[in-house]
Amino acid sequence: IDECEENNGGCDHFCRNTVGSFECSCQKGYKLLTDERTCKDIDECSFERTCDHTCINYPGSFECLCNKGYILYGLTHCGDVDECSINNGSCEYGCMNTQGSYECVCPPGQKLHWNKKDCIEAVKCLPNGKPAPRAQLVCTKSGDAEVCSLSCPSNALFLADSENYTLSCGVPIQPDPLAPPIKQKAKFKIKDAKCHLSPRSKEKHRDSSRQNIQGGQFPCTDDCQVTFVNLKCDSSKKRRRGRKSPSKEVSLITAEFEMEMKEEEASDSCNIDCVRDKMRQKLQIAMRTLRKSINKQQFYIQFSGTEYEVAQKPSRITEGADTCSTGQVFQDGKCVSCGAGTFYSGEQEQCVQCPPGTYQDMEGQLSCEPCPSTEGQGIAGAKNVSQCGGQCPAGQFSTDGFRPCQLCPLGSYQPEPGRVLCFPCGGGLMTKYEASVTFRDCEAKVHCASGHYYNSSTHRCIRCPVGTYQSEFGQNYCINCPGNTTTDYDGVTNVSQCKNQMCGGELGDYTGYIESPNYPGDYPSNVDCVWTIIPPHKRRILIVVPEIFLPIEDECGDVLVMRKSAVPTSITTYETCQTYERPIAFTSRSRRLWIQFKSNELNSGKGFQVPYVTYDEDYQQLIEDIVRDGRLYASENHQEILKDKKLIKALFDVLAHPQNYFKYTSAESKEMFPRSFIKLLRSKVT
After folding, report:
1. What is the dihedral of CA 98, 102, 108, 110, to 10 degrees?
2. How far is residue 535 from each of residues 406, 498, 568, measured CA to CA in Å?
3. Which of 187, 314, 379, 669 has a Cα at 20 to 30 A from 614?
4. Which domains does the chain have, with CATH numbers?
């Protein structure tokens, strides 16, 4: 009877008539359940090692995605993108690739522009003659007490939790060998106080009615300008010995200050070393004053107009909403950090939008960063520099990257907004018009196809060298392969041709696997992989080859062989040079295995991923009896078991450690394997 004629034999997908019976099977990406009728999607994402980064399961298939700064190769692997090979990362000067990102670097005496790509002269004054915003430490005498205040107009970073906080202000100085920065580090103790930045109370304000007038009439003055400050506050309870005194809190503040050496202040009467000593003295005096002010609890930090005390006496801490750390507000019963585009105002005790002309790209901060543009354009609540507004569009440039802008002159182009220069086409090439935005606008003598790049000095198209690719036409660079991959040949047009050369796998004492390089992507040419499996004493090896893809076209050019040792005449367990989509299981004919995979430079294929298990040699006869029985491979359902990663893992787990059989209930076993398979095993075991 052909059972498939009626209602497809009750099968979900395919029905195959056999003599005296029939068989259901499923489309690729689905597995047959143990009722031997229903098909269910295989969730590939639930396997180990399916994707390097993110895995998304679809009905019948899956997809791998990579994190930012990484690109997919070999179908499931993620490699770091070498942004520096893409037009030098768009950097004006130097480019440094990092894992998942990159950085532009500048020559000595210049610093990075805010767009993080261009280099500008490291100037001390802003264009309007005012000093560049720097951290300022101002100490004044009020009555008999010293009051110090540190203002932080830009580059502020604040991180806090319940016990500690760190706070940095300004930019650490690039070490300049001629004039290294002056650094000073000091530790202060504050007794009976907790690390908690709290707005300065109003009463204290009146006592010291601002006697200090900051800055003078001169452009670019510095009172005590510090280029970089790093403050750390740590409250750790220290118990004193003694019966009566309760535990007192001691907060420890560690402060680091850096000052930039100003070479221009050196003169005949006072050379550079003398200037250095003067500045060092100045910083040390400031530190002494600071220590006095901290002891009297008169040290404040100023963020966007609010002064904060560095530590708080427990008496003033009220319960309730104040339990959130600074930079957080109490919302829906929990503490929430102020988001990007806002800052925490200590006076209003709430999150406030950044005013136009400032931005904030971090959360939980106490101020907003000033926009680089001088005009107060831009929106309120800007979350990054590009929302500051007023930037030059692509194809244009200006001295600071903001309007008013000039068009890129003929013979140059600029693909990005907010830049201070245009890139020349090179080799005397012109563009068709001004304000060009890509190298393609340059009137090259020849248009290069993908897999090639244009050399503007010889005006020729050159094939991308091995290890690089270019998928677009008309470009003047090739992109390096991601991570540690390379290509089999030159002139490659797609990142999928970038292949990992490493021989894959993990060799364990009990279970492990070997896989072709770059699996499940195509393996590279001319590889020679060798693995050696040496099982522990009194154990034997069982191997399952679920499927193997080796192109048959080139007379056995790609070979997988397993034998006793490297000697060609030693006992061979398995050898193949072609594709088998049917699985096979076998025991090793020798106690240890030497495995080699070789490929030539012709065709390639997906290769293989072959798991193995070592089992107690007392079971040798039983295992061999099972894997040599034709019924193990007779039906498609049984073949699918050997291809099912989860089931193989469970079977191998029990073979390696038989006591683990009791981890699985009989109901679980029934759900995992079809009746016919359990019947086959049971007959063998009994």
Report:
1. -160
2. 72, 35, 21
3. 669
4. 7-41 (2.10.25.10), 45-80 (2.10.25), 83-127 (2.10.25.10), 131-174+181-200+225-237+249-261+275-312 (no CATH), 335-387 (2.10.50), 390-442 (2.10.50), 444-500 (2.10.50), 501-683 (2.60.120.290)
Tokens 């109901």, residue located? 667
SS3 content of the chain, % helix, strand, coil (to 5): 20, 35, 45
Taking the C-alpha atoms of residue 141 and residue 113, their distance in angstroms, rounded to an integer, is: 39
Q: Nearest to residue 301, comparing CAs of 195, 448, 452?
A: 195
Q: How far apart are CA 437 and CA 79, in angstroms?
A: 29
Interatomic CA distance for residues 192 and 137, integer angstroms: 25
DSSP 8-state code for residue 571? P
Q: Count of residues for the chain?
A: 686
Structure tokens, 344: 């925490």
- The first and second tokens of residue 214, run together, are 């900051």
Site of tokens 């001169």:
218
Mean pLDDT, rounded, of the chain = 85
Contact 182, 225 (CB under 8 A): no
Q: Which amino acid is at 280?
A: R
Q: How far apart are CA 284 and CA 186, in angstroms?
A: 10
Average pLDDT (547-575) is 93
CA distance 676 to 639: 12
Predicted confidence at residue 314, as pLDDT, reads: 58
Tens of pLDDT, residues 3-58? 999 999 999 999 999 999 999 999 999 999 999 999 999 999 999 889 999 999 99
The C-alpha atoms of residue 540 and residue 624 are separated, in whole angstroms, by 11
Give the relative orientation of helices 636-643 and 675-685 as an angle to the nearest 10 degrees. 80
For 358-407, the pLDDT digits (tens) are: 888 888 888 888 877 656 567 888 888 778 877 899 999 998 888 889 99
CA neighbor of 261 nearest in space, from 249, 252, 274 = 274
Residue tagged 């193990």 (tokens): 632
**Cα 134 from Cα 225, distance rounded (Å):** 6
**Distance in angstroms (rounded) separating the CA atoms of residues 619 and 575:** 25
Cβ neighbours for 427, distance < 8 A, ≥ 6 positions apart: 456, 457, 459
Nearest CA to 578 out of 546, 610, 545, 548 is that of 548
| Cα–Cα dist 37/483, whole Å | 44
Q: Is the pLDDT assigned to residue 647 strictly greater than 60?
A: yes
E strands, 117-205, are: 119-121, 135-142, 145-151, 156-160, 164-170, 182-191, 194-199
HSE toward the beta carbon, residue 292, CA cutoff 13 A: 14
Report the predicted TM-score, pTM, of the whole model to 2 decimal places.
0.76
Could you tell me if 629 and 599 are in contact, meaning their C-beta atoms sit under 8 angstroms apart?
A: no
For tokens 């020849």, the residue is 446
